[in-house]
Write a structure and sequence with these properties.
With 275 residues, this protein is an alpha/beta fold. The chain has 7 helices and 12 strands. It binds S-adenosylmethionine.
């Protein structure tokens, strides 16, 4: 049986960690916005035969993906949507401020609910790092997917990542060393009746473990459930892009369209939903 791990361990950047900066450590541990931006653009092009221009990042946090999207192409525009002003402010001061004047004109990080009817319309919309798992009822998740659907331009494509595998039903703590810090991903309290579980991110910096820097209370959704809900929300086709396997059995960060998955201990995939 293959053991796949999330994108979590695949990036190794160096920077100072003397001052604890939770968003920097989070980004280095779990995000790969440059690769993500290229991947979404490439898949849109494959499906539609033309380039996407506008990307909306739901649950954008610091808006790291939006920043990479506007850097990728002078025609790209990006909108980030998040409820929490703290990561938005961080993204504006740490990332957006470093963009060129032209790039700054093409990006907006907006404090807004992803369920709001007036989220900006886009060619590509994404909901990453499983953020939509916070919707625990079918009706609530369908309402979010329906809003993402109505806010896509004609021919738009939505991307949502999803994880699973037999390890998701265990209480586990995964540990990944990075230059200057260690990242921990802990899962507690899986309930097979509700399929809900709690997840925590801890960091060890300079010999001190800082617990529960980020915590999430999620329902674990399966791919068939998600495909059904996306179809009910109006999407015409939903494809599954499955992560390939590296020689050491972990995920290799390369996602390809599949008809069947693989029963790994832990896997990650993208659902690619066509309007
Ligand atoms: C797991 S973080 C994801 C951050 C980033 N997108 C990433 O890929 O790492 C979830 C984010 O969703 C935001 N959020 C939660 N509920 C939301 C809602 N209803 N509307 C907009 N943002 C929401 C939180 O403020 C938080 O920044």
């Amino acid at each position: 049986m293959t053991i796949k791990r999330s994108r979590v361990s695949s990036r190794k950047k160096k920077s100072k960690t003397s001052n604890f900066d939770k968003y920097e450590l989070y980004s280095r541990a779990v995000q790969s916005p440059k690769n993500d931006a290229r991947f979404f653009g490439r898949v849109y092009q494959e499906i539609r035969g033309k380039q996407a221009s506008i990307l909306r990042e739901d649950f954008c946090g610091t808006g790291a993906l939006c920043v990479e999207w506007v850097k990728l192409n002078g025609r790209h525009k990006a909108f980030g949507v998040d409820l929490d002003p703290e990561p938005l402010d961080y993204g504006r001061s740490r990332y957006v401020s470093k963009l060129t004047a032209d790039q700054k004109k093409r990006i907006l990080l907006d404090e807004k609910n992803v369920l709001s009817k007036d989220v900006p319309h886009a060619d590509i919309s994404v909901g990453l790092n499983f953020s939509y798992f916070l919707f625990k009822k079918r009706d609530d998740l369908r309402a979010y997917f329906a809003n993402a659907h109505q806010a896509l331009k004609s021919g738009g494509v939505a991307f949502f990542d999803v994880f699973g595998g037999s390890q998701c039903y265990d209480a586990i703590e995964d540990k990944t060393r990075h230059a200057g810090f260690t990242y921990y991903w802990e899962q507690t309290g899986f309930d097979p009746v509700s399929n809900e579980a709690q997840f925590h991110i801890h960091f060890r910096v300079g010999g001190k473990k800082i617990e529960r820097v980020f915590s999430y209370d999620w329902r674990l959704w399966s791919i068939p459930e998600l495909r059904e809900l996306l179809a009910e929300a109006g999407f015409s086709k939903v494809h599954v892009y499955w992560e390939g396997t590296a020689k050491d059995g972990t995920g290799n960060g390369v996602f390809r369209r599949v008809q069947e998955g693989e029963a790994c201990l832990s896997w990650i995939a993208y659902l690619v939903a066509e309007k």
